[in-house]
Amino acid sequence: MNKKVVIHIIRSVKKTSMPWNDLYATSRKLYPGISYYPICISKLLKSPEIVMTNCQSSKRKFIDSGLFNVFYLFFNLSLRLKNRNLIWHIHNPSLSLLGPFIRIFFRNSRIIFNLHNKYQGFNYYQKYILKYSLPFFHKVIGVSKYIIKNSPNYDHTNKYKFIRNGIYSKYLNKKYPINSISSINRENTIVVVARLVKQKNLEFLLKVFANLKYSGKIFIYGSGVLENKLKEISEELKIRNQVNFMGIVKREIILRKMSESSIYISTSLWEGIGVANLEAAAQGCYPFLSNIGPHNEIANLIGLNTYNLDSVEEWSLAIDKWIKENDEYKTNKIKKISTATRQIFDIDNSVKKYFEEYSDI
Predict the structure, then answer these.
(1) Three-class SS of residue 286?
(2) Do 125 and 28 share a structural domain?
(3) Which of 150, 182, 230, 351 is the most buried (most CB within 10 A)?
């Protein structure tokens, strides 16, 4: 395995980059030397250069390149790393078109494609190129069982696998020990972590919040094109003073807020699996999740319920009921959920499974 090197191919490097960055960062710690600089392709034309930027809570060095410049870069890397077996790990459906090119010109290389979201949620262009690029990949890995089973051309062969996203359980156990988790003294607040886009179904969420009897405030972390519209809706629902749009902040700020708050909500229409969902559960911030495949997968594993997206009333009744439960019951419940989440979704275990797939191809 020491002769293999993994090159992650991504679409963007941002402060909020999570699944691919968590995989890359943890791989470097557990398996030093296996990961080369990620290649970010966000433009059509741009000469490749090594760039350093903030990504989550760390500095991340990567190669920034244009799509049409990347072909020269690939040849250059294949010569520079000629004594290593290259594994190209593609993380974005728009970049799946690189699969056929790599397969044809770098025959000794191997290609893994990661499905981070539901195929049915991709746009037409992404669906088209992904569907016709799939035969060129050696492995297709979904971030949840539901995602991979609903991928195009799915079969039960060894080519299609799922490896669930993970969280930094060791860090959480050290910074926020399980025995410190309690319902007592938690704020009567709701946390939401989401891009402000259609997929996250935040208009429905605001209607749920407006229908609650006992809630305090809601804190929405994230940015997106719907921010102004959501602010207008919160005005119309007469809850604007209770709704706090927090924008993009460091991950540790969100983890701390989750550890202090009572409730987390995700009303997504579709998902991959949602790292923030897992972090909330791990922090004792009780999750209320929409009844979609990946959320049901989480719920079945850690002991939650999910809720239909055609009933505001169902959500508001369940949330109000939770708020009014006694602290002893809630403390026992969130400790149990937190323990299960940290054990089942430990990022180290996820990375070890990826390492097994790298070794297998």
Answers:
(1) strand
(2) yes
(3) 351
